[in-house]
Each structure stands twice: as C-alpha cells, then as structure tokens.
Amino acid sequence: MHLRVSRPPAVKSFGKLNFEEIEPSYRKYPGIIFQPLREVGNQILNVEKLKASTEDRVLFNDVTFSVNKGDKIAFISKDPLAVTQFFQIINGEEKADSGSYEWGTTVTSAYLPIENSKFFTEGLSLMDWLRQYVPPHVTDVDEPFLRGFLGKMLFSGEDVMKKTNVLSGERK
What we know:
Layout: H1 9-13, E1 43-53, E2 58-68, H2 80-90, E3 98-103, H3 126-131, H4 143-152
Antiparallel strand pairs: 1-2, 1-3
C-alpha cells in the first residue's frame, strides 16, 4: 500500500497571510459557566454491575467503574440509546434492570436530556420559566440577574418575554 501526503493549497498560502487585515468575528455563541456550590470530595461516582435492556435487547450489562476527583472520562457507544439510558438511570429518571450506582456525598448532579420538550410546555415567559429553576440558596434573584443569565443564552431585549412553548427546538 502506498500513501501519498500532500499539503492542501490553504496551508501553502498561510505564510502569505497578513494578520492585520483579518477582522475579528462578532458572531456570538451561547454559554453558561456553572459555579460549584462547594469543592467536590474524592469520590464522584461508583457504578457496580449496572444492566439495562429494552424489550428486545440488552443495552449494556455488567458496567462497573469508579470516577474520582480529577478523572477525565468519556462515554462512547455505537448505540445512542444505551448512553441515554445510562444517564437517565444515574440521574434517577429510569430504573436499572440490575446493579447499583452511588454519587459521592459532595456531588450535586444535574441532567439535561437530549429530548427536553417536557420542560417547555407551560407557556411561561422566559423570565418566569428561568425563575422556577433558581436554587433556594440564591437570594438576590431580580430582573437584571435573570436578564443577564438569559443574555448569556443570546436572549436579549423583549426576547426574554417570549413564551417557552413557542421556542424552536434549537432555542430550547
């Protein structure tokens, strides 16, 4: 087998590029930075012999692992349903066929599923919708705070008064 490697034309002309002529992009991306309530302990998650299946097949079986502070992990599967089911189980939304899991005592878990329509059915304004998810320990929740948070998700001006049940899937 012979492998030939060549540089693409864009790479050849990169050296001739004048960086002073490049204008910065003003495109905005949504983003929220989550701040932990407290530093986590050493134990994050322990999973022991977890099994889940559908009526016709096993999604995963005998899954056992521990996650400790500082670990970097990835969940990879050829079956997206298996990953979804796994996360629904460890977040208490579904029951495993067998096995167990335990979050560390200092861990607060949260989960936003791929299919999130059920969170947007009431037709509240975005301000009122967001207000219902403010944790009890946050006491200074006023309109500027909520508008700032919604602004990070690229909702500004009168957009914050839109009803949640009319948002597109992308905006949800």
